[in-house]
Structures are given as C-alpha cells and as structure tokens.
Specification:
- This is Methanol metabolism-related c-type cytochrome.
- One of its GO terms (molecular function) is electron transfer activity.
- The chain is mainly alpha-helical.
- It has one domain.
- The protein has a three-stranded antiparallel sheet. The protein has a two-stranded antiparallel ribbon with strand order 1-2.
- Strand 3 and strand 4 form a beta hairpin.
- The longest helix is centred in the N-terminal third of the chain and has 15 residues.
- It is globular and about 45 Å long.
C-alpha cells in the first residue's frame, strides 16, 4: 500500500530492500511537504497527535488504518491485539528499548516514547526514526537519535513499532507482555520476506 499523499511506502514493511533508499529520501521530502513550518509552540511539544479513536479499516496485511491512512492499533474488548501492535511490542523491545526503556517509558538519556507519541504525528515519528534527530543542550546533556533508515530490523517493522507506541501513549495498552493477539497474515509474511530480500 502506498500513501501517495506522503510519497513513501507505508505498508509497515518495505516492499523491497532495493527501495530502502527511496523510502529514506521520500520521507525527507514528504516530511518537508507535510509538516508545517516549525513554530515556537511546536518546538515546545504542542503539536497535537490524533487519538486513535476514529473509524478503522483493516487491510490484507492485518494493519488497521485511520481514514487519513495513518496506521493504528486495534484492541478487542477481550484484550486481543491486532498483529501489528503485538509485533510492534516485540520489535520495540528488540531494537528500541535499549535507549528508550522498557515499554516506551524512557531512560536517563532517551525520552519516554509513550509520552512523545502523545504529541508527535505519524509523519514526525517517521521523519525522526528514518533520519535521526539531534537536540543540543537539552536538559543536562545533548540528545542524539541515530538514523535507522537503513536498518531493516527497524524499517521493515516501522508501522508495527509506531502502533505499539501509539497504544501505549493513548493509555489503551499496559506495560505487560500482550497475552492475546490476532494471527499473522500470509500477506504480512510475504511482505516481510520481500523487505528482507528473502525468497517466498
């Protein structure tokens, strides 16, 4: 699935490893087109992210999206998570928690992403993860987020990580390991294999 309004592929899993550079470039260009010029209020973290309470659609990959195309979580009344949120939990703890702490709660040198996604938009999240970010003189130390645009273990699961953190930010998912989940779809597996350049 391509989100032409943003100009990058947002299946949550890149369609082919050869397109990784295009994703990075597309995210930079589209972020410049999509994001408003920074204002003093935005620098202070006043940008409002949408709550994930709008109507949702589910695609053949098992991803739920909001009407504007942003990925979102889906938690059934019995606590069953959609596959993307469950996968995001696993991928976050494999790739992100070393700096950002367990369950997105932050650490002494990296912000709590469960708080950051209360104000970060999807486009801002993508921009930061793909290209990195550097804040000089924040608090008692500089903050540097490395660019992960060429790390397939992050990029192939970026939407998964986003929806997990969004569920944490919205307060709909607790800190415990999810116990119930939807099954991974065949289309998701095929897309995952393609992203990593694996056959089948």
């Amino acid at each position: 699935m391509t989100n032409s309004a943003r100009g990058w592929l947002v299946s949550g899993i890149l369609p082919a490893s050869a397109r990784l550079s295009a994703l990075v470039l597309g995210a930079v260009v589209s972020a410049a087109l999509v994001l408003p010029a920074p204002s003093h209020a935005q620098d202070a973290g006043a940008t409002a992210a949408k709550p994930a309470t709008e109507a949702k659609e589910k695609d053949d990959l098992g991803k739920y999206t909001l009407p504007d195309g942003d990925p979102t979580y889906n938690i059934a009344p019995d606590g069953t998570l959609d596959w993307y949120t469950y996968s995001g939990y696993r991928r976050y703890h494999a790739e992100c928690h070393v700096c950002h702490g367990p369950d997105g709660m932050g650490s002494s040198y990296a912000p709590a992403l469960a708080d950051s996604l209360k104000t970060l938009t999807y486009a801002q999240f993508m921009e930061t993860v793909v290209n990195g970010k550097k804040n000089i003189g924040v608090g008692t130390a500089d903050q540097v987020m490395p660019a992960f645009g060429e790390n397939k273990n992050v990029m192939c699961y970026l939407d998964d990580i986003y929806v997990y953190l969004k569920a944490r930010a919205d307060g709909t998912l607790g800190r415990e390991r999810p116990s119930k989940r939807e099954d991974k779809t065949k289309a998701y597996t095929a897309n995952e294999n393609q992203c990593f350049g694996r056959p089948g």
